[in-house]
Amino acid sequence: KAYGPPLTQQLRDAGYNVLTWDPRGWAESTGTVQVDSVDYEARDVQQLLDWVATQPQAQLDSVRDPRSGMVGGSYGGGIQLVTAAIDCRVDALVPIVAWHSLTSSLYKADTFKAGWANLLAAAGMSADLDPAIAQASEAGNTTGVLGPADVEWFTDRGPAQLVADITVPTLIVQGTVDTLFTLDEGVSNYEMLEASGVPTAMMWF
Predict the structure, then answer these.
(1) Taken in order 107, 27, 95, 38, is the CA torsion positive or negative?
(2) Angle between helices 131-143 and 114-123 (to 10 degrees)
(3) d(CA 7, CA 153)
(4) Among candidates 84, 105, 106, which has minimal Cα distance to 93?
(5) Residues 43-102: pLDDT tens digits?
């Protein structure tokens, strides 16, 4: 997913084909928002790659394997990491302000980030959200903590240990003043990739 129209145009001007989409449950896409789940949104991207492979302008590395890279921020960063962990057809990644774990970012030190959670909930009012999201938001706003089931749900939504399965060159871009997906999130992903011998670089802004 491209990080806004300016980047889309820059990529087009540089000679790249660009595919951007509304993730499931958002805008014109059907389905229920699962927060970049490896079992849902990542599978959706696999279907998109299948489609790209049938387009006449696509460069193929093999049958059903289009030469492809991913770039995007936040939600568009998380989807890259979970997709590349399960599909070797993705050839390069540029996750911008992505996360490592939603529990260490949204629920750092077992503390509910009410400010950020409420902003994200407001942004998702027009989306078809999984009921677990509203349940966790209500619990966090009421008690300041999340129950074990809520924590488990968010733990399952994010790259975390899946990063160890990524093998393609990755440029991690993280913001020094980001209080949601902090530098620690990018550093955790970077260190795992580097430990696996993956060509990896990190840029802070």
Answers:
(1) positive
(2) 150
(3) 32
(4) 84
(5) 999 999 999 999 999 999 999 999 999 999 999 999 999 999 999 999 999 999 999 999
